[in-house]
Amino acid sequence: MSKLTYVVKRGEKTGIALTPHWFMEDGGHFRAHKTNSRNDPDGKRVKTEAELIELVRQGYHVRMSNTAEGHSPSTVKPTISA
């Protein structure tokens, strides 16, 4: 099964691994944006990581975080790993 990953490349959180952020409102969902969340504030909302992977293959960016490490959701272009 494929999954999405991203490693922070710059700043004080360099090297931290991020995973897709699960938003709790509206029953819970992941978010993907065509460009970034400022230019595409609503984006697309999906329920599964498989749906999110399909959006990444179509060129979407994903809101990803690592709350355990104090990294809030950021819009990034993740890597699809096997």
Could you describe the 3D structure shown?
With 82 residues, this protein is mostly beta strands. The protein has one domain (3-81). The chain contains one helix and seven strands. It has one helix at residues 49-57, and strands at 3-7, 17-20, 30-33, 44-46, 61-66, 71-76, 79-81. The longest helix is centred in the middle third of the chain and has 9 residues, at 49-57. The model has no long low-confidence stretch (mean pLDDT 92).
Give the SSE string: EEEEHEEE
**Could you list the spans in which at least 5 consecutive residues all have pLDDT below 50?**
none
**What percent of residues are in strands?**
35-45%
Number of distinct beta strands: 7
Chain-averaged pLDDT: 92
Number of domains: 1
Number of helices: 1
Overall geometry: globular
Please identify the structural class as seen in this structure: mainly beta
- Termini separation: 6 Å
Fraction of residues in H or I helices: 10-25%
Largest sheet: 7 strands, antiparallel
* Rg computed from alpha carbons, rounded to a whole number of angstroms: 12 Å
Summary, kept brief:
This protein has 82 residues and is mainly beta.
Layout of SSEs?
Elements: E1 3-7, E2 17-20, E3 30-33, E4 44-46, H1 49-57, E5 61-66, E6 71-76, E7 79-81
Antiparallel strand pairs: 1-2, 1-7, 2-5, 3-4, 3-5, 5-6
What labels describe this entry?
seven-stranded antiparallel beta sheet; mainly beta; 82 residues; single chain
